[in-house]
Amino acid sequence: MKLKALCAATSDFSQVLETEQDLQSLLAKWLDKQLKSTSLDTLKLMARAHGDNELVTLLENAGEPAVRAVAKRVDANNRSLAPVSKSELVNHLVELAAGRVVPVAKIKASSKPKPPKPMRPAGNLLERSKY
């Protein structure tokens, strides 16, 4: 009798573990989706409310594509973020959220100055007319 109860408990426990893994997977997907639309202001609020350590934990538990999407959204003009690892991105995002680093400003394209318009010759217009 105890053996049957132990087998049933083991079976129930394995089902609970499978359900927990499914829930963790769903939660991770939801978190990644939410993080992809996060702004710098939201990161600052999260860091202020929960501290840098919690923000690091949250970002480390997210997938790399989500962290890259957040970095690209928050610091869009920083081209040096493309080849870095996930942990460096997390550190950069925490620095941004804490205000220790500012996002890279957009670089304006330099335009060539337009040449000045040629001046019209002075004088009577009717005298120079061919009509």
Give the secondary structure arrangement, pairings included.
Blueprint lengths: L1 H35 L3 H11 L1 H10 L2 H11 L11 H13 L26 H4 L3
Helix pairs in contact: 1-4, 2-3, 2-5, 3-5, 4-5
Give the helix/strand class: mainly alpha
Poorly predicted residue ranges: none
Radius of gyration: 30 Å
Query: What overall form do the CA principal axes indicate?
Result: elongated
Which whole number gives the mean pLDDT? 79
Give the ordered list of helices and strands.
HHHHHH
For the biggest sheet, the summary is: none
Distance between the termini: 121 Å
User: Helical stretch count?
Assistant: 6
**DSSP helix fraction:** 55-70%
Q: Tell how many strands the DSSP assignment holds.
A: 0
Beta strand %: under 5%
What's this model, at a glance?
This protein is an all-alpha fold and 131 residues long. The chain has helices at 2-36, 40-50, 52-61, 64-74, 86-98, 125-128.
Textual characterization of the structure:
This protein is 64% helix and 0% strand. It has 6 helices and no strands. α3 runs antiparallel to α5. The longest helix has 35 residues, at 2-36.
Keywords:
single chain, 131 residues, mainly alpha, elongated
